Amino acid sequence: MEARMDYIIEMLDITKEFPGIIANDHITLQLKKGEIHALLGENGAGKSTLMSVLFGLYQPEGGCIRVRGKEVKINNPLDANALGIGMVHQHFKLVHNFTVLQNIVLGKEDTKNGLLEMKAARKKVMELSEKYHLSVEPDAVISDITVGMQQRVEILKMLYRDNDILIFDEPTAVLTPQEIDELMNIMRELVSEGKSIIFITHKLNEIKAVANRCSVLRRGRYIGTVDVAGTDREALSEMMVGHKVQLTVEKEEAKPSGVVLAVNGLVVKSKKQGHTRDIIRNVTFQVQRGEIVCIAGIDGNGQTELVEAVTGMIKADGGSISVKGEDITKKSIRYRNTHGMSHIPEDRHKHGLVLDYSLEENLVLQDYFEPQFQSRGFIRRDAVHSYAEKLIQKFDIRSGQGTATKARSMSGGNQQKAIIARELTKKHELLVAVQPTRGLDVGAIEFIHKEIIKERDAGAAVLLVSLELEEVMNLSDRILVLYEGEIVGQLDPKKTTVQELGLYMAGSRRGEAG
Amino acid sequence: MKKKRDSIGFLSSLFAIVVGLLVGLVILLISNPSQAAAGFITILTGPLTHGSKGVGQVFYYATPIILTGLSVGFAFKTGLFNIGAPGQFIVGAFAAVVVGIKCGFLGGIHWLVALLAAMIAGALWGAIPGLVKAYFNVNEVIACIMTNYIGMYMVNYLISTNKSLYDKIYNYSKNVAGTANIPKMGLDVIFEGSSVNGGFFIAVAAAAVIFILLEKTTFGYELKAAGFNKDASRYAGMNEKRNIILSMAIAGALSGIAGALLYLAGSGKHIEIADVLAGEGFTGISVALLGLSNPVGVLLAGIFIAYITAGGFYLQLLNFSTEIIDVIIAVIIYFSAFSLFVRVFISGLRRKREEHAAGGKGEGGKKE
């Protein structure tokens, strides 16, 4: 293979195996100098593994890596750094009680007589910050600044180390639409200054917006590299998934008929000491039979607490919650679960499943005590088993050993399907779904969206909480925007744009509350 | 799948035992090389060389530690660390001894009432850490340590200040009435000359009851769910507080029975007035670890530890000190606490073997 100098990084024929799976199967990735190269693939396609190989976190079993035409061996992140490779991780690696400046220099501090010398560092950081329009406050503590600024700190960390090959791992997942636009501009600027960028994502819009070329991975295999300008979104998604997918959700007009969930003046106080600000401040809304109401907002604006108050996981400190006219504010979780409420929780590992239980045991987690599944305190194993078989077939839950499979060993998509099967099959009139498609691939998302719409059409009231704007826009019949514990706007997804929604989410616009 | 996992668990316990015994051999070699081989054989076969009496003694020693093992293991399965077995043990023993001394009029059911009293006393004592955990979020380990000491000093005080219970000359509790002793249930015929009695059957029955409770009932389903994932059990609407308290009460009841079975064995055991926590309670932790908290595993582990402890007594014949057995048990427990590591190691070996077997078909050339 001839080494061509216009490639700054070449990963040739990389193979990385883990017990039981081949995470990277002969993958080739060639990054040109000065380009933004998107790396596209579903969850589990092998993107992160490939980048971990490049960053020296894993050693590949086969293939070679060339940087600037020279074959190199990268044993650890320090080697990668020495070669000018830097990475912004999906979950930021920042020390929360350090300042911005301290975080940037961390690991590369200047010293004078054994004491820290920050002057030169401060000067360099400020220069970089101005040059690339990365506005940060050098003396602010990380835990006080916005997620957007934290990301800029991460970028500055790479620039401070004079890295010129930058890896962005799903950088937009935590940002508002406005912040995403800003990030795109920064990336363009970096490239125009001669940096090269690998941009990991599964969002097609962003690739179209900013990338020059795109390499696609699917289930550990290399599918191909295309010029972004000459390829449309449908073609990209087909490469990613392997078959045609519907990018928009088809649904009929909602026919709301009668209030099921009514939340009135709900207040949730912070339990942390020293915090006097209420997490949920006087929230009032209703969800009717046959409609999907979505709570939108940036993570951490009270969505979790709102849902926990509705489902009984935490106590409401004020206001009332009623289902079908019955006040359930003071009722137990069990009472709510058995009186019409189904709940797809935000964290399927923490709340949704007992991972060490088998699939069939998990499928009856909400109704093992019903006469159908027990007699005189003894579990009717055969009844549980046949019920599980039925659900597995109906919802196409795939697992290694059928009903006896430990939930832990199932894939994320199938774990989520199991929760959805359980919650939708159980008797209910209200479905509370929190981030039901988080971390799932396009195929599973499509399935879950269809099931939720089917729910609505069958006459259930659906309260949906999602951080994915596309999901919010596609699925909901009504959007309520939550900002700092208040509902700051009620929007109709058909009459609004993502940009407008973003302004509400960022708190810079307010409208009539629902 | 389940079979395979269980067999790995069994293998890891076996591995721990083998390593523990090897360390014991090394210690024997260091302290007296000429007798080491004989000593090692004594540890392995000691109880068998003394006829049916030796075997009977093994079951006698095993009885209380199977129950304290069940107590700790059961709590483990429900996500609680019951380090309070020594306290529950002695409180149970006290209740049994009080009934045993004072209620001679009960006749044939005397021992049964004493046993029941021990069970209730142990359950109440175990419920205390459960209560403070459920309502005040106090870590059960800390509460258990407190109740251990409170239990021990309280029992010492109650016996030594009560003339009807206290034997001043020997500084221990008085003899219980003959009717309070656990019936032999035919074991004295099989294992002539040993102290074994029907208590062993009670221990086996307790293991069976705990097994059924955990595996077959909705209550066990709830308790195990809470043990595996507390948050998910809350999400499913299970009553967390009630389950914590009941789980600790059941664990306490098991330890309480253990106390009764030891002091009602008719083997001349008395509650001694000494500031020492009951060793049987702590051994329960070892038994639960080695038995992987599984009721059947606990039963086997209890018998095994009793077996090598009995073997250790015979070591004295060769002028070794019995502490060597304690060291061996400690090493075994140490390694069974490493069972996770051992499990990974064993499943790694197994996978390699399977890969070798499949190597012909696959691409081969697996580099490591």
Describe the structure.
The complex is a heterodimer of chains A (514) and B (368). With 514 residues, chain A is an alpha/beta fold. Chain A folds into 2 domains: 7-241, Rossmann fold (3-Layer(aba) Sandwich), CATH 3.40.50; 259-505, Rossmann fold. Chain A is built from 17 helices and 24 strands. In chain A, the strands form 6 sheets. In chain A, strands 6-9-10-3-11-12 form a 6-stranded mixed β-sheet, sandwiched between helices. A 6-stranded mixed β-sheet of chain A has the order 18-21-22-15-23-24, sandwiched between helices. Chain B is built from 15 helices and 2 strands. Chain B has helices at residues 2-31, 33-45, 51-77, 85-102, 110-136, 140-160, 187-190, 199-216, 218-228, 230-235, 240-263, 279-290, 295-315, 323-337, 339-358, and strands at 166-167, 172-173. Chain B starts with a helix and ends in a 10-residue tail after the last helix. Chain A binds chain B through residues 19, 61, 313, 332-338, 343, 345, 350-357, 361, 365-366, 368-369, 374, 377-379, 400-401, 404-406, and chain B through 1-2, 216-219, 221, 224-225, 228-229, 231-239, 351, 367.
Shape of chain A: globular
Classified by CATH, the class of the largest domain in chain A is Alpha Beta
CATH architecture of chain B: Orthogonal Bundle
> How far apart are the first and last residues' alpha carbons of chain B, in Å?
26 Å
Largest interface: A-B, 34 and 22 residues
Task: Supply Rg of chain B.
Answer: 22 Å
Query: Number of folding domains of chain A?
Result: 2
CATH superfamily of the largest domain in chain A: P-loop containing nucleotide triphosphate hydrolases
Oligomer: heterodimer
Count of individual beta strands of chain A: 24
User: Kindly state the mean pLDDT of chain B as a whole number?
Assistant: 85
Task: Return the CATH class of chain B.
Answer: Mainly Alpha
Strand elements of chain B, count: 2
> What CATH architecture label of the largest domain in chain A applies?
3-Layer(aba) Sandwich
CATH topology of the largest domain in chain A: Rossmann fold
CATH topology of chain B: ABC transporter involved in vitamin B12 uptake, BtuC
Largest sheet of chain A: 6 strands, mixed
Main sheet: strand order of chain B:
1-2
**What percent of residues of chain B adopt helix (DSSP H or I)?**
over 70%
Cα separation of the termini of chain A: 63 Å
